[in-house]
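hey so u asked for the seq, here:
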Amino acid sequence: MPEHSSWLTLILSHFRDTLEHNAELLGNSIVGGQPPTWHNFEPLVAALFITVLVLLISARVRSRLQRTEEAIIPEDKLTLRTFMEAFLAYFYDLAKSVMDADRAKKYFPLIGTAAMFVFFSNVMALIPGMPVATSNLNITLGSALVVFLLFNTYGLMTNGVGYIKHLAGPAWYLAPLMFPIEVISLCVRPVTLAVRLMVNMAADHLMLGLFMSLVALLVPIPLMLLGCLVVLIQTLVFTMLTCIYIGLATEHEAHGPAHAAHH
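ran it, structure tokens below
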């Protein structure tokens, strides 16, 4: 999709002077040293739109589940509640397959939120004219950094100093070699997580936008079906890697002395 060609661009253009002034206050970008423009606010507003959408959907589904008599009776058709139940149940089962059930339940607020944010952001790519937050590196990198900071926090909370010692390798004499390698590997995780999601969603949205601009009827349908597959796969990959990173950071919780004594 050509840059800055969504309905959000039209809305933000009415506030161009204010946005340009605020952009100047931010200074040049860290990567490339380029001065920001009012267009740079578009992915931020798109991400905020998805955040509000996720909150509204969550509040709606929660209100339905709080009605106990209705919640225990399965609905016989696809509704927002049944979709979200199936969606979150799938990723909860995914989390349990990566780590144990206790940790999956403990860390599912992050895992479920990441899955919902990435999924609904990606779905926007299937709607012509809609802004796609996950096609911008600033948004995907921000999301990946949140995951990075939290799984390291979980690791420190679970294993304490042992989480840092684990990076030094199994033997002290390997520490000078292993520690830099492990730190670099750890720091590369959010970058690969962000770039993979951004590149795939940007390419998908670009191709769909080009075909829609050429032929609006019938011809783009196969591409939209492929786009649906991309949306699902990228949501799955981002969420699965989040589960794996949390599982690796907190694995001593399930394999430590307390766990061995329990068995």
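The longest helix spans residues 175-214. Residues 253-263 have pLDDT under 50 and may be disordered.
lmk if thats what u needed
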